[in-house]
Amino acid sequence: MKYIYFIGTAGSGKSTLVQAFKEWLNFHSIDTTIVNLDPGAEFVPYQADVDIRDWINISDVMRDHSLGPNGAQVVAADIMALNSREWASVVKEFRSDYCLVDTPGQMELFTFRLSSNTIVEKLGKEDAFIVFLADPSLARTPNGFVSDLMLSGITQFRFDIPIMNIISKADILSEEDIEQMKRWSEDPFALYSSLTDEQINTQTIMSIELFKAMENVGLYKTMYPVSSENGTGLEDIYTMIQLHFEGGEDIGENI
Questions:
Q1: What ranges do the domains of the chain cover?
Q2: Strands 2-8 and 50-51
Q3: Which residue among 1, 65, 197, 212 is the one 20 to 30 A from 229 at the CA level?
């Protein structure tokens, strides 16, 4: 089973994309399991096959440890890792083609906790792949685009597993915005040119240097526009996953 982790900032559309991608995979006869790893989620748009909320209740954590909501989320992330043997064994019983893992809404609760590495290792690091959701509103500007790239690069650095970048909620962007972002992601010189066209200040200088550093270490990657609403880019996600694990061979029908 291949574990696909959906990671992104709060409000980037992770849960909605998990649901849309599952429907796309099911349509193509690809067996899929969904795992919700957000113990603080009040609602998810899918029926989770394994839901961490069956093991951890944020309200209980707040009461038992005298914590506020944010502190409880941090403690819950560590409890989730401590209990990973139990719930991970339940996940592995499904033996699907794909396991879609919906991570906590606040990116830092998963990306910046050592406990998350334990979870990835427990499920199988060699079978892991990350779909990173870039904030579409942030990516409209050159500096914002670099910020999204930096968050993606940090995520790959933290987990050391393959990653693809997507521009989430592409349906809310204009065609002009999408084409500009695609140019920036495919041609480093186009992004560099846009950065140098900006007013030269501390932020721009930092963006240029960060961009150069990411390019030098191979963290500069193409961003694919994806929409959970109209299905744009879902096949691109599947293609990138299959290229990594199966050399591009299809496992579904009518693709």
A1: 2-246
A2: unpaired
A3: 1
Task: Return d(Cα 77, Cα 6) in angstroms, integer.
Answer: 16
Q: What is the C-alpha separation between 115 and 249, in angstroms, rounded? A: 34
Fill in the DSSP letter of residue 11: T
The bridge status of strand 32-36 relative to strand 223-225 is unpaired
Q: For 73-129, what is the HEC assignment?
A: HHHHHHHHHHCHHHHHHHHHCCCCCEEEEECCCCCHHHHCCHHHHHHHHHHCHHHEE
Sort strands 223-225 and 128-134 into parallel, antiparallel or unpaired. Answer: unpaired
Domain 2-246 has CATH 3.40.50.300: yes
Instruction: Residue 207: name the closest of 198, 195, 197 by CA.
Output: 195
Per-residue pLDDT of the chain (255 residues), as tens digits, is: 999 999 999 899 999 999 999 999 999 999 999 999 999 888 999 999 999 999 998 989 999 999 998 899 889 988 988 888 899 999 999 989 999 999 998 898 899 988 899 999 999 999 999 999 998 989 999 999 999 999 999 999 999 999 999 999 999 999 999 999 999 988 888 988 898 887 778 888 888 888 888 888 777 788 999 999 999 999 999 999 999 998 767 776 666
By the 8 A CB rule, do 103 and 6 touch?
Answer: yes
Which class for 209: exposed (0-12), middle (13-18), buried (19 or more C-beta within 10 A)? exposed
